[in-house]
Amino acid sequence: MLMMTSAKIVVAGGFGVGKTTAVGAISEIPAIRTESWMTAAAAQIDRLDPGIDKVTTTVAMDFGRVTIDDTLVLYLFGTPGQPRFWPMWDDLVRGAVGALVLVDTNNLANSFAAVNYFEHDADVPWIVVVNLFHGVATHELSEVREALALPAHVPLIAADVRDARKVARALLAVVDHAAKQAIG
Fold first, then answer.
1. What letter does residue 55 receive in the DSSP assignment?
2. Beta strands of 56-149 (E only): which ranges?
3. How many of the other CB atoms lie within 10 Å of CB of 96?
4. What's the N-to-C CA distance of the chain in angstroms?
5. How many domains are there within the chain?
6. Left (φ > 0), alpha (ψ -120 to 50) or beta: where does 148 sit?
7. 95 CB contacts (<8 Å, ≥6 apart)?
8. Residue 101's closest CA among 17, 178, 24?
9. Domain span at 45
10. Pairing between strand 72-78 and 5-13?
11. Distance, CA of 105 to CA of 10 (rounded, Å)
């Protein structure tokens, strides 16, 4: 008889990198979203690049669930990306087996805080996923690794997080990386 195991995975990253989209794309249940409308009052705080049509923002977390197979269920916790909500990250990361850190190469500066957090302040294995907005890679992964100063042991992959299959591969990469870290 096979035992069912569950694992908590955190989906983290800067403001507007696709965390809510990733959780929603893969979740087998309707994703729980704690979103609020973006207002003119927050325009100076939550800055978006021109042409971005984002109208809501996560204010607490996103939550989803995906059954990988008969033995593994992943519970996904998406972090809010704005700096004013970063204190919540410690609570969201507690108990996680790993983290998927999303980055947007069109706004790489938005990614440094998340990379720094997982490199220095969190004690979970993590990988970095370049979100391929519109399915297009704007930079080589080696360039992204260098720009983010990622340690060699941190896996770096690319995925269009609107595609559930690509998100599944990224989540499996997190699980695989976490298992290798636990073994060795």
1. -
2. 56-69, 72-78, 98-103, 126-131
3. 22
4. 28
5. 1
6. alpha
7. 8
8. 17
9. 5-183
10. parallel
11. 20
Q: What's the pTM? A: 0.85
Average pLDDT, the chain: 86
CATH number at residue 96: 3.40.50.300
Check pLDDT > 60 for residue 12: yes
For residue range 37-68, what is the model confidence (pLDDT) as tens digits? 444 545 454 555 445 554 555 555 899 999 98
The three-state secondary structure class of 82 is coil
In whole angstroms, give the CA distance from residue 65 to residue 47. 30
At 113, list the tokens: 């805080």
Compute the distance between CA of residue 155 and CA of residue 183 in angstroms, rounded to an integer: 17
Six-digit token pair at 79? Answer: 């972090």
Could you give the CA distance from residue 177 to residue 172 in angstroms, rounded to a whole number?
8
